Amino acid sequence: MQRLLTSVLVGFSLAKSVFSFTPGFPYGSQKVRGVNLGGWLLLEPWITPSIFDNTGNNAIVDEWTFGQYQNHNTASSVLQNHWNTWITESDFGAIAAAGLNHVRIPIGYWAFEVGPGEPYIQGQLPYLTQAVQWAQNHGLKVIIDLHGAPGSQNGYDNSGHRLPFPTWHSNQTNIERTDEIIKTIASMFAGQPDVVPMIAPLNEPAGYDGSAVLAAVRQYWLDSWGNIRYPHSAIGPAFCTPPHYQGVAMDTHIYQVFSNAGNEMSWQQHINTACQYQSILSGFDLWLVVGEWAPAMTDCAKYLNGRGYGSRYAGTYPGSTAVGSCNGLTGSGSTFSASYKTFLRQIWEAQVISYEKVTDGWLQWTWKAENADEWSYQAGLKYGWIPQNPTNHMYPNICG
Ligand SMILES: *[C@@H]1O[C@H](CO)[C@@H](O)[C@H](O)[C@H]1NC(C)=O
């Protein structure tokens, strides 16, 4: 998760002909309503800060350093316990019961293949297979999301390796390894297009870091289309021909909290911004899904900007000026004021209404977080700022 940018989801369905095919979900005629299972098969410090704090080592800031600076058996057993407990089948039941139809599951490349000198710890892949089974048991669709690539595609901790500048795009070996992993994912779930209708080949590559990144990403999207679609095509070579946009969706991510200006906005300005996305997002000629967004409207959550960094909202992040205190704006929903919970409901609905009006649907980031309930779908259901049925709106006219 981070910032506003786009990536590509590639549909995974059997082809009926070059010009029409049957996806595992009626994209375009039915809205995607879903949630990300963030911080599960790929650690993010802000989603599970305790896992990082318990190491007693401040140099452990991402999953790379989690493996690098600890005894292997210790790190491995902490991860195994986390994979076993953070998400279980009961979560899939609760997600389906909340009226959602999709989950997006982030996973890092190292689940599939670890190169020499890379300190990542494996063992998460069986949980992905298990998750797909659980999704099927509860009638949910899965978008498998490659969230971390060799060399890091964006330099954020959520790619597995926090770096000053991404290095995925500048090294052809990294890109080729990623292509192979996408082929592996595609083959693993080739027989289940009804449960895994989409694969997101790379989360948030840093296209904003310059033309070299953009060029690598463009080629990678094209290659991924072939890598994902071809093995599953019923008609073989015909599918290698353009149009390349067949079965492709844009996955856009929308946050208002990763800039000083975003943190300085009033609650009403946040709502207005959410409503303005009705015009910003309109007119796409591909399927469009808002694959990450959240009701959180501050960057107050501990470690949200990385372990060791503060928040713009409290003025403890480099280059920011305090807007106010983070007290009562993050942590447990049991501490949130009535007016804050009303605002969370309003900003949740303003986004859902806007995204459903002009896109093919949405997936909130994220299902659960240890101590940042403003981001958590599960907590929103519990404390009431997210409706038990996502079509049940208290503020249907919030965008006018
Ligand atoms: C390119 O990346 C691979 C790992 O994917 C690494 O082994 C190799 O040293 C890198 N090459 C350069 C020139 O950095």
TrEMBL record:
Signal peptide positions (record): 1-20
SUPFAM superfamilies for this protein: (Trans)glycosidases (SSF51445)
GO MF entries: beta-glucosidase activity
Residues annotated as domain Glycoside hydrolase family: 79-211
One Pfam assignment: Cellulase
BP terms from Gene Ontology: glucan catabolic process
GO cellular component, one term: cell surface
UniProt entry keywords in alphabetical sequence: Glycosidase, Hydrolase, Signal
Listed InterPro entries: GH, Glyco_hydro_5, Glycosyl_hydrolase_5
Family to which the UniProt record says this protein belongs: Belongs to the glycosyl hydrolase 5 (cellulase A) family.
Protein name listed in UniProt: Glycoside hydrolase family 5 protein
Organism: Boletus reticuloceps
